[in-house]
Design goal:
Layout (H helix, E strand, L loop, with lengths): L2 H15 L6 E3 L1 E4 L2 E4 L4 H8 L4 E12 L5 E14 L6 E7 L2 E7 L6
Antiparallel strand pairs: 1-7, 2-3, 4-5, 5-6, 6-7
Length: about 110
């Protein structure tokens, strides 16, 4: 095998083995209490999925361009919730921006 090809294959294996490479973005999350959709509000997520196993909140600055090319800086509150539904199911990460679901990720069994 050529050295360049061997290097590329080795690099791909290393990348694939990284925990962040294991997360997959989804549009919905099926919980015992119902299905969570992008855009759902935080209380609805809690009603459908229960309390997250892990949660953290942070502020994030977002630059938005307006019609005249000026950047408008806004601050959003980001809630990062991890749901653990037991050892036989994957864990899920739900990101909420200003109280609404904007990203759902399927993780592995250990929450990486």
């Amino acid at each position: 095998m050529k050295p360049v090809l061997r290097f590329i294959l080795s690099a791909l294996l290393v990348i694939a083995a990284q925990p962040s490479a294991l997360a997959m973005t989804l549009r919905t999350l099926d919980c015992d209490g119902g299905i969570v959709y992008l855009g759902d509000f935080a209380p609805n997520v809690m009603k459908k999925c229960g309390q997250p196993a892990y949660s953290v909140q942070r502020e994030q600055k977002i630059v938005q361009d307006n019609s005249i090319g000026d950047g408008i800086i806004t601050t959003s509150i980001i809630d990062d919730w991890t749901f653990n539904f037991g050892p036989t199911r994957f864990q899920y990460r739900v990101l909420l921006r200003d109280g609404r679901v904007w990203q759902i990720e399927c993780m592995d069994y250990y929450g990486y």
